[in-house]
Amino acid sequence: MNYYVLSLFPEIIENSLNASITGRAIEKEIITLTSVDIRDFSDNKHMKVDDYPYGGGAGLVIKPTCVYDAYLHTISLIKNKKKPRVVYMTPQGSVFNQKKAVDFAKEEDLIILCGHYEGIDERVLETIVTDYVSIGDYVLTGGEIASVIVMDAVSRLVPGVLGNSESAFTDTFSDGLLEYPQYTRPEEFLGMKVPEVLRSGHHGNVEKWRHEQKLIRTRKNRPDLYEKYIMLHPEEELKD
Ligand code: 6GU
Asked: pLDDT per residue over 194-232, tens digit each?
């Protein structure tokens, strides 16, 4: 997976992705990150990349010219004959979820465009963007952190990024339910004991207990997901 991220704050992206599991994947060259600074494609001596919005209003709009030149530069770096998808991070996009992460993880190259201020001139977006993606119903100062979230979620689905011990397929959302609670030593903490069944060594009972915990937790925290799950598995509906 090769990410090309066009933004005004490449350091936010590099600092985040170069750490932890994604950092290790970059070192191993399972994923690559190329950050492109849109400011490098400014067409004036003050390195300005934004201007006042036509029609008035608050804030500044990123000029289409520098974004387009940054895009053309990025395309020139990519050997692949196939034109990559261009994901624009925007609260106006459709909301990112695990299904979208799985879909993006199938790509070889992904161009991610991050806006700032009041956004980017619509004409360049119409020309280059294939996917408009938001990470939820709240507003961030820019798309950089949102892009890191998308790349993190996508990267862990790329073969080789997670070790055997960090499975991407048994975790939350792989079956539409939230995960069960986990415990480690000590056996007693602040007077609270680890549930007896987990110490019993009875594999069947552990599996049964964990599945029930998933249902309880999902019903409590995500009634929307619980309803969906029970529609598909009515025999599993919790009694109480
Ligand atoms: Cl992708 N960008 C910004 N600026 N704010 C957001 C977002 C993206 N997703 C949710 N809020």
From this structure: 999 999 999 999 999 999 999 999 999 999 999 999 999
What is the 137 CA–ligand 1 centroid distance (Å)?
8
**Separation of alpha carbons 218 and 180, rounded Å:** 9
Q: pLDDT tens, 98-110? A: 999 999 999 999 9
Q: Which residues contact 128 (CB under 8 A, 6 or more apart)?
A: 67, 68, 71, 86, 113
Asked if the model's pLDDT at residue 170 lies above 60, the reply is no
Name 26's Cβ contacts closer than 8 Å, sequence gap at least 6. Answer: 17, 18, 32, 33
CA of 143 to the centre of ligand 1 (A): 6
| Ligand 1 cavity residues, CB under 6 Å | 89-91, 134-136, 138-140, 142-143, 146
Inter-residue contact 147 to 158 (CB < 8 Å): no
